[in-house]
């Protein structure tokens, strides 16, 4: 039985047990693990992040089709709900939507009456986004669908694992922000 199979089938009572069952971090680098990057990619955090995000997006796309909503629109609705008055640039970053796609998405959402685009009074070059009552209502109908998918996705996790993963991923995001080149 491979190390991956062993870790996949361990009975885990809680997040601490799950963490203890993981291989040491040094074994998850190409230097500490024999083989080519392709052979060890499945052991890396970012491989699994993209696999999970892609699978969830496909499930949400199927579920949201009945509402006439695309996943990018869902992300924008949620982002603007969390951060009312956010700029297009901030929304693109927070919703993880390409800025060009975001502009087209926001145009369609404004035509549908889900949000408004407002000039920033302090800087007319900046557009601020706000949900309309229709947009808030739509978000309220979509949220239970997304929550059901999220709960199903996390059903097999040991107690505390989802919270631990959230904490860990926030730290990874902070690390990426530190690693980002500064623009002058």
From TrEMBL:
Source organism per UniProt: Streptomyces atratus
Lineage: superkingdom: Bacteria
GO molecular function, one term: DNA-binding transcription factor activity
Family annotation (InterPro entries): HTH_MarR-typ, MarR/SlyA-like, WH-like_DNA-bd_sf, WH_DNA-bd_sf
Residue span(s) of domain HTH marR-type: 42-174
Gene Ontology BP annotations: response to stress
Keywords: DNA-binding, Transcription, Transcription regulation
Name of the protein: HTH marR-type domain-containing protein
């Amino acid at each position: 039985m491979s190390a991956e199979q062993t870790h996949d089938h361990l009975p885990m009572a809680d997040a601490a047990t799950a963490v203890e069952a993981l291989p040491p971090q040094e074994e998850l680098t190409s230097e500490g693990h024999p083989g080519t990057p392709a052979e060890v990619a499945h052991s890396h955090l970012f491989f699994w992040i993209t696999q999970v995000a892609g699978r969830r997006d496909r499930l949400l796309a199927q579920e949201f089709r009945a509402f006439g909503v695309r996943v990018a629109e869902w992300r924008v609705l949620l982002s603007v709900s969390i951060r009312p008055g956010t700029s297009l640039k901030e929304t693109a970053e927070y919703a993880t939507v390409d800025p060009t796609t975001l502009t087209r998405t926001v145009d369609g959402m404004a035509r549908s009456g889900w949000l408004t685009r407002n000039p920033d009074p302090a800087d007319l070059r900046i557009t601020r986004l706000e949900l309309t009552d229709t947009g808030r209502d739509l978000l309220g109908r979509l949220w239970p669908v997304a929550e059901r998918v999220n709960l199903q996705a996390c059903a097999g996790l040991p107690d505390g694992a989802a919270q631990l993963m959230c904490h860990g991923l926030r730290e990874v995001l902070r690390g990426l922000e530190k690693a980002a080149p500064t623009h002058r």
